[in-house]
Write a structure and sequence with these properties.
Layout lengths: L2 H6 L5 H9 L13 H19 L1 H14 L3 H15 L1 H4 L4 H14 L6 H12 L2 H4 L3 H14 L9 H7 L1 H23 L3
Helix pairs in contact: 2-3, 3-12, 4-5, 4-12, 5-12
């Protein structure tokens, strides 16, 4: 899963959220530089990723995309699932997505010094372009994949990812809605935040 889902799966705890947000930008030897709760957020992120990669519904979505995106299919699913989450937001949260997004941006601005330099530079763009809300829009999703395509070393077919999602949206949505309650329960068990 991508930013939206990871930020949602942070038990409404700012330190866990920061750790969950920075985890992909932190090397193992750097983890000790952070407070215990931020370290737990980093570990939470990695636990979510491992759980997600092994879940049969995620594997089914990945398998559906493998003929089009090869080894990048799991990356595509991560991003597509943020789109599906945004369209099913009311099922999982009583807080409107617009308010959640604004709250996250405020936290990231307040805690910018806790972020690695790369993310400190990225957060203003994230806020300016409202990434969390744009994951739920087709044009926002296309922009994400266009940006990723420019950075890829191998053929990815990212430019077709949104078309594949829309062609099989009901199947991806079904997979997501069978998977997401399981990852919420796993996070609640891991963090004791139920």
């Amino acid at each position: 899963m991508n930013f939206l889902a990871h930020l949602f799966l942070s038990c409404q705890d700012d330190d866990l959220l920061i750790g969950n947000f920075i985890a992909d930008s932190i090397r193992n030897k750097e983890v000790a530089n952070y407070s215990p709760t931020i370290q737990k957020g980093i570990l939470l992120h990695r636990h979510i990723d491992s759980f997600t990669d092994q879940h049969p519904m995620v594997r089914r979505s990945t398998h559906r995309l493998h003929p089009h995106h090869g080894k990048y299919a799991p990356v595509v699913v991560d991003i597509l699932f943020d789109y599906v989450l945004s369209h099913n937001w009311d099922t999982y949260s009583s807080e409107p997505l617009t308010l959640f997004s604004k709250k996250i941006y405020w936290i990231l601005e307040q805690r910018v010094e806790d972020l690695p330099l790369k993310l400190q530079r990225r957060v203003p763009s994230m806020i300016k372009h409202d990434w969390l809300m744009n994951y739920g829009k087709e044009e926002g999703l296309r922009y994400v994949f266009e940006t990723m395509e420019k950075r890829a070393s191998f053929p990815t077919n990212f430019d077709k990812a949104v078309d594949h999602l829309l062609a099989d949206y009901e199947a991806f949505e079904e997979d997501f809605n069978l998977f997401f309650p399981d990852v919420i329960q796993m996070v609640n068990d891991f963090c004791g935040c139920d």
